[in-house]
Known about the structure:
Layout: H1 2-21, H2 32-50, H3 57-79, H4 81-87, E1 92-96, E2 99-100, H5 102-108, H6 112-121, E3 130-135, E4 141-145, E5 168-172, E6 175-176, H7 178-183, H8 188-197, E7 206-211, E8 217-221, H9 222-231
Antiparallel strand pairs: 1-2, 1-3, 3-4, 5-6, 5-7, 7-8
Helix pairs in contact: 1-2, 1-3, 2-3, 3-4
Amino acid sequence: xxxxxxxxxxxxxxxxxxxxxxxxxxxxxxxxxxxxxxxxxxxxxxxxxxxxxxxxxxxxxxxxxxxxxxxxxxxxxxxxxxxxxxxxxxxxxxxxxxxxxxxxxxxxxxxxxxxxxxxxxxxxxxxxxxxxxxxxxxxxxxxxxxxxxxxxxxxxxxxxxxxxxxxxxxxxxxxxxxxxxxxxxxxxxxxxxxxxxxxxxxxxxxxxxxxxxxxxxxxxxxxxxxxxxxxxxx
Length: 234
């Protein structure tokens, strides 16, 4: 049993290290090449776990080779656009000025139902409202609406707006997030004082609390979460 645990953990951390070495990818946006490598690594990682008689190296060495190839190909794609076009592919215009580019769709074997579905995912229900729609090599559809159909922004109205940065979680799952307190140059006492301003006497009663760039503290209480779960029958 101990031997199986050690082998499993070894394979797990080796595969994890290999994936991290290959760089960050959003799962839904990986290229076909990245997908093939990921599938092969998953298959190779399972080989040493199938039998104790199979040496670990039979799975780990090929994984290391694939990870190295992935890194080398990624570097080549950065330096040589031609290799990038072959390995990863190029974006393709699917809609231009509200008109569907049927010939481009046929080349990609991409049908109109796929297009309409991906447009609806972006809350676009009329192709005529689209200025450009580009199918990325990952299969994701990037959409630019016509200027008349875009939401009005403060810039369109020549309005000045204050800076808005990210909000920082100061309490998560009832636990103080000390790294963010330190980042904001705050102390636990500062947090407690801000909570008391909202008539909250104990940090333990807080499920989640975050501080936005404007200094506003958002708080969700533990009992609110429990009540919500009861209402949903969980």
